[in-house]
Amino acid sequence: MPDRIPGTPPAEIAIDARLVRSLLREQHPDLAESTLRAIDAGWDNAIFRLGDDLAVRLPRREVAAPLLLNEQRWLPALADRLPIPVPTPVRIGVPGSGYPWHWSIVPWLRGRSAEQDAPGAAEARRLAEFLRALHAPAPRVAPRSTVRGVPLERRAHAVEQRLSRLREHVSPVGDQVVSAWRSALEAPASDHDVWLHGDLHARNVLVHHGAIAGIIDWGDMTAGDPATDLASIWMLLGDGAARREALACYGASEQLVRRAKGWAVLFGVLLLDTGLVDDPRHARIGAATLARIAEDHDSYR
Fold it and tell me: For residue 146, with 0-12 CB atoms within 10 Å meaning exposed, 13-18 middle and 19 or more buried, which class applies?
């Protein structure tokens, strides 16, 4: 049995309000005296709210620095065609005040994360329309990931380690989840690359009064298999009929659905396995995703 993996990666630099204020005074002095407060920190970035309408987004690890540069370059080119708001950078920050990486000032989008305030079943069509709008052919120069949008067989070893570890201890990881994973591995790989968000789980989707109000955290945006993003249907929609509506509205083929369920298993076991170490929010998202996969086990096996 493999050893348990570590949880949330530690920050490689201390980021606090004093540092952010110093960066603002150096580079964007017109915003430097706005109210500033820490909001959240994920695996890759720290977020501070700036005044009422803006947020500051700063990488907390070196590996995240090029991902933020991808956001700065590519998100403005995609945003206008997307039917749901996204935090397109409005100001760019550069290294300074002892901070070594580029950073962004982005619009503050209202709402709570979908794991705190789930989208209503009526949002199934809207989610599908967003994914269809996003999933346009990506240019050859688009960013590429070694872990998102790739053939699932490249991720098989790590996923199966997690499945083996979790099956001994966690009820959502049963035979139906394993069957969905194996079916996904047997499905033909995608033969075209489209733009992807790449990390469309519930903490990266904002909901306001039951409606999806924003899609955030585009650091993993890449070109690849649309199945990666379609995993969000199981990560966000708790109602089985809503999931079926979303897939129908998107126009997903049987093979695409099989791969999408495989990506949902991948994200589900990743979030559950790491979340059980030190992040209960991720663990809950992962467990819910896997339970929905089990519930839909007879759809496009």
Answer: exposed
- What type of residue is 68? L
Q: Per the structure block, which two tokens stand in for 147?
A: 């872990």
DSSP state of 225: -
Handedness of CA 268, 271, 273, 279 (dihedral sign): negative
List of residues 6+ apart from 52 with CB closer than 8 A:
108
Query: Would you report the helix, strand and coil content of the chain in percent, each value rounded to 5?
Result: 45, 15, 40
pLDDT in single tens digits along all 301 residues of the chain:
344 455 678 999 999 999 999 999 999 999 999 999 999 888 899 999 999 999 999 999 999 999 999 999 999 999 999 999 999 999 999 999 999 999 999 999 999 999 999 999 999 999 999 999 999 999 999 999 999 999 999 999 999 999 998 987 766 688 999 999 999 999 999 988 999 999 999 999 999 999 999 999 999 999 999 999 999 999 999 999 999 999 999 999 999 999 999 999 999 999 999 999 989 999 999 999 999 999 998 765 4
- Residue among 271, 288, 280 nearest 236 (CA): 288
The two tokens of residue 145 are 């990931």
Q: Which residue has the tokens 């209503």?
A: 120
DSSP element (H, E) containing 249: helix 240-250
Non-local (6+) Cβ contacts of 93 within 8 A are 23, 27, 28, 56, 58, 102, 103, 104, 105
- The token pair at 60 is 């907390």
3-state class (DSSP) for residue 92: strand
pTM metric for this prediction: 0.93
